[in-house]
User: Fold this.
Amino acid sequence: MTLIILTGILTFSYAGITVYVATRVEYAPPLPITKTPAAFGLQYRNVTFYSRQDHLRLRGWFIPGVLPDGRLTAQRTLIMIHGTGSNRASPLVLGLGCALAKRGFAILAFDMRGMGESTPAPLSEGYFEQRDALGAVDFLRSGPLPYPELGRTRLIVGWGDSMGAATLIMAAAHEPAIRAIVSDSGFAAIVPLLERNTRIPGAFIPGILLASRVLYGIDFYATRPVDVVSSIAPRPIFFIQGTADTVVPPSNLGTLAKAASAAPHAYVQTWMVKGADHIQSFHVMGAMYVNRVVSFLTKSLGPDTGKTPPVEQA
Assistant:
């Protein structure tokens, strides 16, 4: 009898702890937006759009690209997707986005669900967030034009860091309108990282993952970009990661690149940045990072001709 009672107490305690931790992990206070593209001398407009499928409201910026002669362009738009616990105003997203805008790429940077100024929602490490990336595509293809005089975006590409990179890979696997992607510090599968990086005892991880599925519908075991990355071919992919990454082991780049390269007509480019920690390659390499991303995207899409598409009629 004592054993049965003890077993019941332990089971109840285990369930209670896993539910509590799952709830704390899924909902974290969003960081505020503290800076805008105006700090970099660029024009921008606030935009609102909705995730595909579950229609959560997302907030972002549309930043026109600046051509060499100073004219603005929206022909080629880069969707930028931030990582866990971040937002569109992070130094990486905002700093890199503005640098790329000055090189002629329009930028759509937005807060994913549960972060920044977007609708509160549980963190799913890409499982649901890919719907946000797909909503960004829908906005560019058919939503209200932030700059009507610049016309509709003609070519869509994507860049993401960490969870944002994983999200982008999974979204691009379902959306051929994303013509090329840059993955910075993306992971091949999330469960090994949760087991590796959390301070929670390993015995509790399966229970937390189960609680996340029961409470929020999140299947972390299905959050595996490595399983779908090959379907992006023949669209180009550029994988970037630091050799000193302490969050996503550098081996993840090799795993993803190998899987992507297995597809017929795959076009895969990789760059291991010596000495860079997690999502620090841009800060380590600076202008070289910008140049390599611009070169990759230009080769993938061709140059901006500077010709504005016809303005849509209301």
